[in-house]
Amino acid sequence: MLRTHKLSLAGVAAGALALAVSTTTPLAYGHGYTTAPISRAKHCANTTVQNCGQIQWEPQSTEGPKGFPGAGPADGKLCSAGLQQFNELNDQRGGAWPTTQLTSGANYSFKWHLTAQHATTDFKYYITKQGWNQNAALTRSALELAPFLTVSMGGARPAADITHQGRLPSRTGRHMILAVWTIADTANAFYQCSDVRF
Which of 42, 62, 131, 181 yields a CA-CA distance of 20 to 30 A from 83? Predict the structure, then answer.
C-alpha cells in the first residue's frame, strides 16, 4: 500500500513537471513566414527587433480569416492577422523596423519557409501605394488592392522552402509588402508584413 502511494505521488510530480515544461516551451508547430523580403515576424524571431512579445517564438503563426481584401483581418490588424497576442507587428514604431533594399521594377525572388505544408489555393503579394501614411498601422486604403503577384497552387502542397519569381512594382522610398498565403482546405490564410525600401 505504501509503495503504491509513493509511486502515485512520483507519477503526479512527473506529470506536473511535464506540464510546466510544455507550457513554457515555445510551440514547435506552425505554418509559415516570409524570409525574402524578410518579414516583421521573422525579424522578431531572429531578435533583430526587440520587444516583440509572443511572435518572437512563433513567427509562423500569423493565421487569420481568408478572403483578403474583401474579408480577412480588420484594418490596422493586418500584420498580426487580427491576433491580439501578435499586436506588436501592427506598430509602425516610427519607421524603426529594418527594411529590405529593393530595386523598383526589378525581378525578385520572394521566399517563404513553411513549417507545415498545407494544401494551398494561392500566394498573393500586395504593396502600399505611393504616398501612403507610414505612421499609421497598415490598412486596405494604404494598399494597392490588386496583388502585383499571384501564384496559384490549385490545392497542391508547396515545399517547405518555396520561391516565387515576380516583378516588383514601380516605387520609391519606404513601403510595405503584405504577403498572403491562402489555405485551400481551411477557412484561414497566413499574413506576413515586410518593410522594404526602393
Answer: 131
Closest C-alpha to 80, from 104, 131, 44, 49: 44
Chain mean position to CA 198: 22
How confident is the model at residue 184, as a pLDDT?
A: 96
Residue at 123: amino acid letter:
F
Other beta carbons within 10 Å of 36? 16
In a domain, 50, yes or no: yes
Cis peptide before 37 (omega within 30 of 0): yes
- Considering its fold, how many domains does the chain have in total? 1
The pLDDT score that the predictor gives to residue 30 is 52
Residue range of the domain that includes 158: 31-197
Report pLDDT for 27. 36
How far apart are alpha carbons 159 and 163 in whole angstroms? 9
In a domain? residue 1: no
Closest to 166 in 3D by CA, of 182, 152, 186, 154: 152
Judge whether 65 and 187 are in contact, CB under 8 Å: yes
Residue given cell 521594377 in the structure block = 105
- CA 106, distance to chain mean position in Å, is 24
For residue 52, give the CATH number of its domain.
2.70.50.50
What cell was used for 109? Answer: 525572388
Q: Give tens-digit pLDDT for 147-163.
A: 999 999 999 999 999 99
